[in-house]
Amino acid sequence: MIPDPSPEDLAIRDTLRRFAESDLAPRASALDESEAFAGAHLPGLAALGVMGLNLPEEWGGAGASALGLVGAVEEIARACAATASMVTAHFLATDAILLAGSPAQKARYLPDAAAGRRLGAFALTEPGAGSSPADMTTRAVEAGESLHLKGTKHFISNAGAADFIILFARSGESGPRPIIDAFILDRDTAGVTFGPPEPTMGIRGGHIFEIALDCRIPIDRRLGTAGAGFRTAMQVLDRGRIEVAAMALGIAEAAMEAALRWVRERKIDGQPLAERQGVQWMLADMATEIEAARLLTYRAAALRHAGAAFTREAAMAKLTASETAGRVTDRALQLHGGYGFSRRLPLERLARDARILRIYEGASEVQRNIIARLLLRET
Fold first, then answer.
1. What does the DSSP 8-state code read for residue 127?
2. pLDDT tens digits, residue range 136-184?
3. Rounded distance, CA 266 to CA 336, Å?
4. How far apart are alpha carbons 281 and 237 in whole angstroms?
5. Which of 179, 187, 225, 290 is positioned for an S-S bond with 172, CB 3.0–4.6 A?
6. What residue spans in the chain does CATH classification 2.40.110.10 cover?
7. Spatial distance between the Cα atoms of 10 and 2, rounded to a whole number of angstroms
8. Rounded to 5°, angle at Cα 228 from 298 and 146
């Protein structure tokens, strides 16, 4: 069963919808064209408590339910996917500290992060280790009371603008598998350099960076117990996949809304496109797929909120919603004809923004592997 959103969940969603429509949507096209970082929206988001929606009140957060969080991400992405990308990358970082951090680490980072005074990033991916963290080559070596980090991270959202980064590194071997630890890295650490923002196809205002590391950090910046980094990463990614699914829903909804407006107004031979059966069937398929993806996403969020296992459901939601966003944006663009291919309308931006959702935080193929592995284990 999927519980109905609570009054608090609906209030969060309504607040974010108003903000998104008034502040985010009017600037989304210009943000995409200029490729400026979405951080310009941080003050407004922080004022609404968005940057701490995933955190409990004891650490300065809003204590929102997982369903409330999904609704908020949906509304932000419906208006501006780049801003949603910045926010959800921040959630990955703060979730890692919430799940694995010591009380001192939580006190040091989470209140400022929840208030929007510090922006976070989550650095797992490397040039040669994307879908397979076991191929990680960044190293962490203990040297007295400090740790020496050396390596390269790539495609890290927010990194060049972040105040702190949750970083994963190989710290040893256990048979054929690496031992992976997680660390909290402050932006101003000597020996940490950032490349320029990667020129991306979509979500151009959600900047991603390469990080070069040859630095030392205090040993108390290890996040969680030694050797627990991989487990922390997987727990955080389970949560993040629900948020990516919510992003996909928001993008698909924006495309669907644009398509509905267009087919009502556009006429061919004096007849609105909306009166043609072929068009109606396209719309029916789009709406049905969005609703199916929404139900999977909300179910995963409900399980997360209940404290139940949700790895499989998060993978199903992420897989279905991201694939749905790709199909829906493509069909909506098709219904617009040549106008959909023009940058004067939002369809081409929505199609570009949707494409990465089938890749990051676990490509569609990885989600299928997760689902199949758990299914076979259960049976």
1. T
2. 999 999 888 899 999 999 999 999 999 999 999 999 887 778 899 999 9
3. 9
4. 36
5. 179
6. 120-230
7. 15
8. 130
Give residue-wise pLDDT tens across range 36-71. Answer: 999 999 999 999 999 999 999 999 999 999 999 999
**Residue 20, both tokens:** 């998104």
CATH of domain 7-114: 1.10.540.10
Catalytic center residues = 361
Distance CA 74, CA 242 (A): 11
**At 193, phi and psi to the nearest 5?**
-130, 150
What single string gives the DSSP state of each residue in 320-372? Answer: HHHHHHHHHHHHHHHHTGGGGGSTTSSHHHHHHHHHGGGTTTS-HHHHHHHHH
Closest Cα to residue 178, out of 237, 219, 247, 126?
126
CATH superfamily of 120-230: Butyryl-CoA Dehydrogenase, subunit A, domain 2 (2.40.110.10)
Cite the residue boundaries of each domain of the chain with CATH code 1.20.140.10: 234-378
Identity of the residue numbered 140: A
